[in-house]
Every structure is written in structure tokens, then in C-alpha cells.
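Note to self: user wants both folds in one dump. Writing first protein now.
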Amino acid sequence: MTDQQQQPAVPTRNGMPVLGLGTWENDDPAQCTESVANALDAGYRHVDTAQIYGNEAAVGEGIARSDVDRGDIFLATKVWIDELSPADVASSTRESLEKLGVNAVDLLYVHWPAGEYEPGETLPAFAELRDDGLIDRIGVSNFEPEHLDAATDALGEAPFANQVEMHPLLRQEELREYADANGVELVAYSPLARGEILDDPAIVDIAEKHGVSAAQVSLAWLRETGVTAIPKATGIDHIRDNLASVDLDLDDEDVEAIDALGRTDRQLNPDFGPDW
């Protein structure tokens, strides 16, 4: 059996692979390029970056270096808060595409509802980029229900996705209910709670029960909850371990144990963010 045949197949939902490679804080260009290329060659088909990460060029180099065709990759980036006026949305997105070395991205997010963000001005600029074929889908990030309502009013449709911090220690029940009711995909960043879940006794118990890593348990729980996860990984071992989560099926007892944790351990809460 070849390595390609052994790779887990990542399922998709509405055209988006439900496991992707996050690149936040992967700011060493050589390492970022290598991790993106390695992830794609291992079987990932979803890569997430952002203007503020400062690594779009390295991500693009990783895509170019891999053996995977661009058309098979779901690529997402985000517009930073000081680039959200209509003119800046257009110019900064074109700069992002140039750095990434692509003609278009599959998903473009508003990174935060902050800074220059004005729903009635920012989101029509995103829609114009979509009309021009520079982006395929419009997303938002770190939005609460009231922000999503305003975005929907401005677009005349719900955003495709809302990327938020989510993991077993921050289960985001309200946003999950909103997403289900309004047809919005949830994408989880920091899906391992920046390593906190790796030492949680309940998660560790479930991992030992299945003979897998705690990281795989967290990622499998997100997938089975209907959420796409984009864990950061740089080394090939972690890249492969996270990918193996798509083959892990949690049972009802596992899910109940995770849902019973009752913790709200938010890892990221900048001053300019929403009033959670």
C-alpha cells in the first residue's frame, strides 16, 4: 500500500475540508513553508493564514512546493482590522493574493469586528471581490450573534463561516446553535486550547481509552460537533497526529464526558475584541 493510500481522507462540509492547517504564530518563513508543504503532502487540503500573521508569502511558497494541485486546496486568509475600509479591503486583498502566489482564495475573512470594520461598508467590498472572482466565499472571525446578524443584513445573506476560538474547554454553545439555525459554518482556531486540553484529565482518559492522543480527541469532538478545526502544527509528527483524528469516532459516553466539563477557558481575549 502506498503512502498516498494510507493517508486519512479528510471529509468536507459545504466544500470545505473539516480539518485544516492553522499557521498563526508560524512566523519563521522556512519553517512555515516546510510545514505547509508537509501538511499538504500528508493529506491536508485546507490551509488557513491571515495578513497579520506575516506569513502569507511563506504559505504560498509551501503550496507551490507541495505535490498538490492548487485546485485541490481550500485556502483562506483574513483581512486585518486596519485594512477594513472599502478601498483598503480591495488593495490589501490583492496584496495578499500576490504574496500567496494565487489568483484567488477560497475564503476571505473579516479578522475581527473592530478597527475600520463597518458592516455596511466593509462587507459590500468583500462582495465586490467575490463578484470579481478574487475570492469564492465571504467569512467573518470572532463574531458574536449580534455581529453575525448585522453582517447578514449588510450582505443580504449569512456569511459562509465564522472562525472563533473553540475547543472542549470553550464549547461555544450559543454560536453553535446560531450556526445551525442560520447555515453558518463554524471554524475553530486554537482547537487544542493552546495545549491546555492535553493535560485535562477527562480528555486524557478518553485518549487512553481509544489509544490515541489527547489532541486527536479534541479534534474528533469538534468534527463530530459539526465544526471545522484548524490546529497549528509545524513538525511532521504533530501534523500527522492531528490528521489521524479524522479516523477517530467518539462514542456517546465520550461526548457526554466532554460536554460535562463545563469550563470556559478562553485563551485569546484582546482589548479590541468583542465584549464576550
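First done. Writing the second protein, which came from a different request thread.
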Amino acid sequence: MSFVVQKKGLTLFDWINYILVALISLACIFPFLYVFSVSFTDPKVYVPLKFYLFPEKWSLESYRYILSTNSFINAFKSTLFITIVGTILNIIVSFTMAYGLTKRSLPGHKWIMGLVIFTLVFSAGIIPNYLLVKELGLLNSYWSMILPGLTNAWSLIVIKSFLESLPSELEDAAQIDGCSDLTAFFRIIVPLSMPAIATFTLFFAVGHWNAYFNALIYLSDSSKWTLQLLIKTLVIDSNSVAVAQAGASDESVVPQETIRMASIVLAMVPILIVYPFLQKHFAKGVMIGSVKG
């Protein structure tokens, strides 16, 4: 028996959907095009408040300027350190703790799971978190951006659900062969969890890279500002302190608007470069924990 699939013509509903999706896509794409265009526009031909879809005259002057400033380089180094170290620690703590929570024989298992779920529903708030970081002596330290958020309840629950979906027979066989729980975790669980690890690596890395609010309240030393906090100063503050601290001899050479747009593009590029390498694993791991059985 053969089945023939007949193609039907597009209905009015289909056309409306296509048009709406196209309009929404354009609304999302145009701001990126504008930022990209202004950042590559020659400062000599730049006209304020003029919409640029494509640069009238291409130039890398704004990028040369922003990359020559001490403030941007320091912010980039700070964000890079926080992202790399923070993501590695996030993955280690989240997966090891989630693996421990999959063991029903763990002493106090129900109490620990109850505390995890409690933090998923209730939060202490900004002031208690700030006081905690202050009492730990982490203010104006990169660790204030890393240690308080080593893991979170949502990540733990999703990772735990994923680990529980793995065949338990593999771990049982490893234990029969003499493997300890730690050996079985690194030799069996971790290789099987690469899609989940890649997915949460991307989640954690993007979260650290875009960290803004915690940097705003914990880092008062401008030399330790993150990239997003520096861009906030460039974009929002009219008399930009960051540009004034940049160390350039003549600020009037490059308009501040082109500097802002160049800094935004430079902040997006690293994530855009890393994402394609994780796309293969991300596509497999995005549905982790959604299906059990």
C-alpha cells in the first residue's frame, strides 16, 4: 500500500503567518544591521541621528580606537576570566551535585532535594545576597561574580532528570567490574552526558558573558568592570566616564556613537564565534530531561 502526499496551496492563514514572521524577523535584524553599519562607518562622514543600513564609507577607525583603550581591554580580560572560570566551575558543581542527587541512598536525599526545590520557588533577595558577599570579603573581586552562582535549582533539576534517563545497567556493570562511583561518573556518565554538558556550557557561558547587574552592585572598581558594565556606561551615560578613562589624546576624532556601536559588536562576536562549535551538541541536548522512560 502506498501513500501519496498531495501538496496543498497556501491558504490565507499561511500567508498571514509568513508575513508576520517576516516582519518580526526584520524587526529583530534591523537593529543589528544598524549597529553593525554605524560601527564600520567612517567617523568623518558619520552624521548623528541618521539611519545607516549600510556604511557610506567603510572604516575600522572606531575599532582601532576602542581596542587601543585600557578600559575596554581590562573589561574584556575581566569578562573572559569570569566566563571561562565561572563556566568550568558551574559545570563541575552542577553535574557532580546532580549526579549525587540521583542516588536515593544518599544520606539526607529528601532534605537536600527539598532545599533545592525551595530555592527554586523562594529567593533571599538582593540585599541579603549583597550582605553575604560583603561578609565573605568578595566585594570588588571577580569571585563575587562566580562563587554565589556556582549552580542553580533549575539546572540541577534538569541535569538530574537527564542523568536519571541514562541506562542504569551501564553503571551497575561498571561497579561489578570494580569501579567506584567517582570512576563510573568520569568514565561512563560524563561521556554519555556530552550533549547536556555542551548545552549547559553554552547557557552558563552566555550568562557569565552577559553578566551586568551583579557586576554593577559588586564591582565598584572601574578597572575590574565587566564588558557589559562598560558598554552600559558607554551607551547610557551621555558623558561617558569609560571614554574619558580610555587614555586617548583626542576624543573628538571618533564620535562617541560609533565607539558605542563598535563596543557592542565586539561584545557580541565571541559568543557568535563559539556558538557554531556547540550547535551540534546543543541541538541534541536542548530537549534533555523532557522525555523519560
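Dump finished. Worth passing along: Residues 70-101 form the longest helix (32 residues).
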